[in-house]
Known about the structure:
This protein is an all-alpha fold. The protein has one domain (8-208). 75% of the residues lie in helices and 0% in strands. It contains six helices and no strands. The chain has helices at 8-64, 85-103, 106-122, 127-153, 161-178, 188-208. The longest helix is centred in the first third of the chain and has 57 residues, at 8-64. The two termini are 61 Å apart.
Amino acid sequence: MNCTEIDWNLVFDILKSISIIIASGVAIYGINSWRRETKWKRKYELAEEALSLFYEVQDAITTIRSPFGNVNEGKTRERNENERAEDTKILDRAYVVIERFEKNKEPFFKLRALKYRFKTIFGKESENYFNDLVKLTNRILTVSGFLGRYWKDQGKWNYTDEQEKKNLERIEEYESIIWEGWGDRKDEIKEELERIIEGIESVCNNVLKNQ
């Protein structure tokens, strides 16, 4: 064969191989691009869902801690045997917070169910916002359970002035926890809730603001 003569079969084989390589490269790039897009979409949807639930819980806590209510609230509390009528009224009032939580608990449980998925995608540190919110909620509910007892003990005939003073101080402390904007104390619950919301916003908005 003349050295200047072209072996077209060889040329076609080379072009065919190049085409296969290019097609494979494009396919691999497409798959990787699809994977990145799918992963980003899941991350975006998770951030959107979590942040929405945090907002729902924030609103629920505001509702639960509202100092305004009606005379029918707290009536779902189980009565103790031989409970006095005057004690029933006091204990029902303390139970209002727990009753309100029961009516608004859905977003709290949805958020707890989301925690481990969120932790997997956004890292261990993000779990702190979920845990802090649970602690905050538990604090409100626990205090409401104790407050009725302190209300009942107020003004006991056998209390010394010092005991009465301490009881009143505890009542004021607990009331500032279960009621939003109550008394002259700083609303630590509201401030802590705002800190949690700001923290989770900073995590989620890194994704939501960069769509």
